[in-house]
């Protein structure tokens, strides 16, 4: 869908409707105000309105040989352009290759010693291990329909965190749901039994957002020619990107920014498709720090032929059922446009968009710098913020980019000049 961005909003809706076979009139779900106040009032508490964000579609994504139009909701200019841009380069190498771990999440029950100063965790640990089968069956009894769908409790581990504190981790296959509510129920069902059998006190009963058993793994291989740009060769860009990856692997200060670039894409897909983005953020950063040092989520290497090879593993606690996926009309349509049929596939798309977002940013940073591409698109929101309307927006953007000072005060001044000239 080359040139998709040059169409107007209506033209883009026509193109997406034609590509997805979703009836054109359904796109009204993306009109302003489609989340009515009554529904909003039922989604959260103390509602006084709704907050709208632009919803866009990223192009060029081919994952495991299948084409996706990827809905993204974000307030930052250039994020969608960057993802589409990098996906086009990656497509030149055959696209993204993705696989998923099983949809396993962890429910935690905290247990504390009955009497301070007399800790003896071993008998409690032994009692829990001995009852493993019964405890897994009890967990399954909380969700018979999940078990019927092929999900349910898979494993149970006991870890001694301190002489007077244990945690029981129950691994649960939650199929196509994000799983938080499912797992919290299981933790609450197990807690009294664990307490009875050990004599220890049950504390917190909640899922863990470190979804490291449920990762999406995505790789890609990009021919250097696809990375060439204004005034730089593909080989130079590829080498610069591999070096940028090493920088992030060696320095947590850089890794944080590197991962911000990854999350530009991941969060935008999460928001558009009605996911719990706080859970995804928490999981991603906890995973990035799991080895003790904070690490980049996506890495890049040159292979012997000089192609650029990228890889990402992302905890993917996402679902195509439950949460807000059925309540928010725009999220519902976004999921339909994406056409992901399972939570695992949605996680793979998110990881692919994270990898693409990272590639676009690193390519710009390692060559011409971020400002040309990013700031020229950011200039549009600066122009609107300064009060430009209709045809004034393009004219003001042009002048702002020419002035190389894309700032609010400058935009107000240039808009004033523009209006005086046309009087
Ligand atoms: C901004 C571009 C894409 C321009 O890139 P360009 O070279 O001017 O683009 P092009 O005209 O050659 O077009 C190439 C493709 O890009 C897409 N594209 C191109 N323009 C548009 C547009 N207006 N709207 C939508 N899509 C666009 C589109 O897919 C197009 O293909 P086509 O449709 O022509 O076949 C490029 O410079 C770029 O990728 N820059 C990176 C920008 C970026 O990473 N932004 C994120 C914000 S910065 C940040 O938050 C993170 C950071 C940087 O700190 C992370 C880090 O440090 O690692
Ligand atoms: N720390 C955190 O991250 C926390 C997050 N949350 C919130 O929890 C919500 C997510 O919890 P979650 O349990 O996913 O959501 P829900 O409870 O909304 O939905 C899951 C339910 O969907 C039904 N279902 C239908 N089809 C399937 C399928 N194919 N696979 C799996 N389940 C299916 C199941 O119910 P049935 O079997 O009865 O049909 C299942 O219990 C989010 O809103 C999140 O914000 C809440 C607390 C803490």
UniProtKB/TrEMBL annotation:
Superkingdom in the source lineage: Bacteria
Biological pathway: Metabolic intermediate metabolism; (R)-mevalonate degradation; (S)-3-hydroxy-3-methylglutaryl-CoA from (R)-mevalonate: step 1/1
Record bears the keyword Transmembrane helix: no
Keyword Heme (UniProt): no
Enzyme Commission number(s) from the entry: 1.1.1.88
Family: Belongs to the HMG-CoA reductase family.
The name this protein goes by in its record: 3-hydroxy-3-methylglutaryl coenzyme A reductase
Native organism: Nannocystis punicea
């Amino acid at each position: 869908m080359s040139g998709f961005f040059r169409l107007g909003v209506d033209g883009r809706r026509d193109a997406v409707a034609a590509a997805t076979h979703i009836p054109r009139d359904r796109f009204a779900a993306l009109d302003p105000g489609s989340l009515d106040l009554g529904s909003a009032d039922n989604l959260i508490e103390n509602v006084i309105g709704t907050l709208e964000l632009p919803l866009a579609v990223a192009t060029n994504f081919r994952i495991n040989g299948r084409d996706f139009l990827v809905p993204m909701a974000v307030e930052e200019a250039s994020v969608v352009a960057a993802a589409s841009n990098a996906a086009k380069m990656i497509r030149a190498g055959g696209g993204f290759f993705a696989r998923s771990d099983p949809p396993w999440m962890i429910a935690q029950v905290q247990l504390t010693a009955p009497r301070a100063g007399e800790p003896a965790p071993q008998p409690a640990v032994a009692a829990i291990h001995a009852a493993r089968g019964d405890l897994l069956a009890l967990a399954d009894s909380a969700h018979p329909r999940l078990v019927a769908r092929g999900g349910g409790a898979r494993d149970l581990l006991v870890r001694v965190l301190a002489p007077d504190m244990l945690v029981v981790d129950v691994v649960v296959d939650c199929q196509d749901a994000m799983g938080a509510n499912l797992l919290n129920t299981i933790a609450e069902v197990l807690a009294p039994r664990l307490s009875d059998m050990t004599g220890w006190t049950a504390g917190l009963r909640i899922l863990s957002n470190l979804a490291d058993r449920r990762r999406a793994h995505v790789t890609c291989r990009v021919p250097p020619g696809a990375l060439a740009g204004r005034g730089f060769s593909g080989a130079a860009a590829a080498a610069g990107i591999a070096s940028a990856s090493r920088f992030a692997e060696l320095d947590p200060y850089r890794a944080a920014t590197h991962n911000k670039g990854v999350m530009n894409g991941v969060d935008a897909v999460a928001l558009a498709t009605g996911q719990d983005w706080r859970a995804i953020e928490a999981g991603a950063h906890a995973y990035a720090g799991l080895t003790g040092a904070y690490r980049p989520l996506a890495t890049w290497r040159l292979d012997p032929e000089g192609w650029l090879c990228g890889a990402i593993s992302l905890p993917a606690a996402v679902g195509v059922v439950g949460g807000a996926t059925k309540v928010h009309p725009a999220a519902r349509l976004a999921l339909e446009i994406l056409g992901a049929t399972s939570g695992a596939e949605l996680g793979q798309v998110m990881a692919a968009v994270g990898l693409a977002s990272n590639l676009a940013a690193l390519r710009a940073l390692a060559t011409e710098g971020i400002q040309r591409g990013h700031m020229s698109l950011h200039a549009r929101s600066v122009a609107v913020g300064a009060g430009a309307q209709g045809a004034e927006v393009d004219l003001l953007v042009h002048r702002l980019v020419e002035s190389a000072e894309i700032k609010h005060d400058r935009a107000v001044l240039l808009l004033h000049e523009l209006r005086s000239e046309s009087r």
